[in-house]
Every structure is written in C-alpha cells, then in structure tokens.
Amino acid sequence: MAVGPEDRVVRAGWGARFAWNSRANWNSWNGWNKGTWLVVSGGVLGAMFVSMGLAVLFGPANGFGGDSLAYMGAISILGLMPCGAGFVWALIHPRHGLPSAVVGALLGLAVFVSFAGDGLNDSWKAPLDRPSTTRAVGSWTAGDLVVRVRPDVVVAYRSATGAVVWRWTPPGEDSVCAMSRGTGQAGGADGSAGAGAGVWVGVGLIGHSPHDRPCSAVTSLSLADGKEGWTAAVDAPARDGDAAAPDVVAVAGQHAVLQEKGGWRAVRLTDGSDVWRGTADAGCSPLQVAAGVQDVVTVAQCGEAAPVLRSLAAADGQERTRIALPAAGGLKNLAVVSVDPLAVWVDAQGERGTHAVLSYDRAGRQRASIPVAGDEYDLDVMLGGLHAFDEFDARPLFGGVVVGDLFIVPGEKPGDVTISGGTHPSRSATGRLVAYSLTDGGQRWTAALDDQVTGVAVDGTSVWAMTRGRIARVDAATGRRTAELDVNGTASLYPVDLSVSGRERFTVVAEDGTRDEPPVRGMD
Length: 524
What we know:
This protein is an alpha+beta fold and about 525 residues long. The radius of gyration is 34 Å and the shape is elongated.
C-alpha cells in the first residue's frame, strides 16, 4: 500500500517520541544504579574495614593474636580513609545500605578469622605478694595443682581456676631453706603419708630452719592437702641468714635422699625411716644430689682434686658408676640437668677449664661434650644465664632440657637484643632454641623465636618456649614450630616456671610477685 505524506509525518512523530522516551528512561535507570552502586559499595567496603578494625581491637581479649593483627589494623585504618564517607552514605540510605553493611561486616570478620593467629589471655591471677621484699624460692606442678614456695609459706593453687587449695607455714620462726626438685608418690596399705589404706598421694620435700641456723629439718608435705607427713633431722652445714641451697634433697622413687655434712642418707618417702647411707670420699664434701625413679646421682667437691660424681641405685644405695669430673681446681657452677640419660653441666673455676654439658653412658664413659660458650651461641643451661642461681634459690630453673637423647637449650649471641636511643627508646630482639645430640655433641637443629626465652616446659615429644610476647611449641625431633600463641595478658620479663596444665593452657610462676607480674597466673 502506498504511504502518503501524512503517514510519514505521523510515523516520524512517533519515532521521535519513542527515541526521546527511551533516552529519558535510560538516563533515569543509569542514574538510579549509580546512586545505588555508591550506597552498596560504601556499605560493603566501609563495613568490612570497620568490622575488621573492631575485630583487631577486641580480638586479643577473645583468644586471637599473631603478627597479622597489626597488618589488618593498618589496612582497616587506611581503608576507612576513602571508604568512611561511603559507609556513612550507606547508613543514611538504609534500604540498600543496611544489607550491604551486613555483607561487609561478615566479609571483614571472615578475613579477620582467616588471617588472625591464636592468643593466650590471663584466665586468673593470684594476688600480689606482700611484704614487697619477699621472693619465691621454687615451685612444683603436680596433677591439677601448682605449688609456689616462699621462705615463709607454701601455697597450692588449682591450675584451672587459681583457687587456693591449701597453705603450709614452717614451724616456729623457721624459713624454707631447701626443697626437692621433683615430687613423688607415697602411701600404701598402712595408710601412711596422710592417705587412706591403699591410697597413694603426691609428696614434696621441704627443708626448713631458723634464721642463721643449719638447714637441719626436712618435712614431707602431702600435695593433696598440704598436711605434714614426717620430719627428719639432717646433719647439715652452716647456713648464712635465710639463704636457701639448691639440690640438697631429692625424691628417688619411694625414697627421699637427704644431703648431710659427710654424705647422703635415704629414708622412706612414706614414713621417713632410714633405708641406706652413702659417704663422700676422704677429703671431699657433698655438693649436690639429684634423682630419678631408679637412680640417685651425687656430686662431691674434693678441694683441688677432680669432683666426684657417683650414680647409685635408689633402692639400696649401691654404687653403679663413679666419674671424676674434668674440673680439677674446683667448680664455679654445676647442675645435673638429667639423671637418665646422665647429663651434667660442669663450669670449672679456671678460665680455660671445662665449661660444657657432658653426657655419660650407664658405664660412666663420656659420650658428648657440648660447650656452653661455643663459636656460635652462648647456651642458657640455667634459665636466666649467669644470674640464674640468684632466682628461685632452692630450685633454680633449668633452661636446658633433655628430650630423648637431645639437649634442647636457649642459645644467645651478641646483638640479639638492641635498644635504640633517643627520646622514645625502643627494643628489638630475637631468640632461639638449639638442639644438641647427647650421643656425639653435634648440633641437630635451631628453632627461631621472636625474643629471648623466659620459660621452658617439656610436653611429651615437644618443648614449649615462652618469650615476653609469645609461647611457641617446638617439635623436639625436628625443631619445627607446630604452634605459636601470642601472650595477650601479662608479659614475663624475667625467668618464670612455665608448666602445661591442659590443651594450650598454662600456669606461670614468678619469683618476684610483688609488682609487675602476679606470683602465679593461669593462661588459656
């Protein structure tokens, strides 16, 4: 059909009107999406950065930690600078803004949980010590109890809650002058050691005496309730003031071994009755005693001659091994770091004398010599290094521990700790654990840490190492870090007695509990 001019005009009008309406509708739709996009993007990104920042702020109090928290905190601040206004804009337009903010908040929390590490918080703290001059002389961990020993009082805490279970005070004006390094189990069919018939209870040994008097009494304490079992008289050397001496009493299986002026005496752990005696060689004086379940190790100082180490059977005191330690001229320091396998730290008086951890086989033959001041590292055999014996007088803390046939110890080198000067001085540090073979003395591995070690605890085939800000679990066989936890609560600046009280639960005992650090605390 032919199209007339009028039809062309009508069609042209309709085409123009359609084009104009389409353009208007497109502009309206495009403008609406741009505004919505601003609301949605502002809500998602702003809420993501806000939630991530809040998680960083409150995460440590809820068991999170790690270096990533600092990075996520910085990212949150930097992200909120351009996105903060968009987040506010989204809140002003709740129809699309609130759902977007919810999505962003969930996204921020997901990012935080994905990258944050684990942390530990103080679950309980014992009240600060008084008077302000008092210090702990040692501690034990037994079952679900942690026991802190001061010169004037022994206090047992429940490791899970911090509740005080019992207290024991030395008689009269006595103060604690010795304690066993380990604890044992006593009891039996006669119901001794404060237990019912057939019940065995944990027992620790405490030496005590008046000021400036020999440490002439040793009392067995039931760890279940703090009750005294027996008290044995000891022919002890002179004592200076209220000083405590380390490793002069020990628990050896079912016996307690007491060091005296002329030798050592074993008594039954259940009732304190004598079992056997051992005497030091002529011209020698007893120095230390250590024990395991079946072995007793004694060390005697022999003037200018070599000190004598003897391994005895715990049951009857029969000599199994006699070793002349390579320290003629006397000892500056000595510690039996392990009874089985036998490993001894020998620190001779002479500058060029023996300064090493020595290991021996059951026949008394030397297996390895591990220098404590080698070409690469200085080893903290005692936690705290040279000043270790000034802390926890009755039971100084070992920095080096034995796991299997490995000696694992904190190693230090110059430059590990640096302090920058200026108006606002800062501290940077690094640290490590080093493992040596007790078979040949060779270095097996090194595990890097973030700072110097303040606490060490053996946990099966692993070792936990505590620094000022972290606790790391290191596999003893390989040196691989298998866990790393930030310490979000109290930082331990000085050596502490660290013990594992459950899955990623710890107790920490401080020598000085009068100021910055509580006497005892739990962490989980």
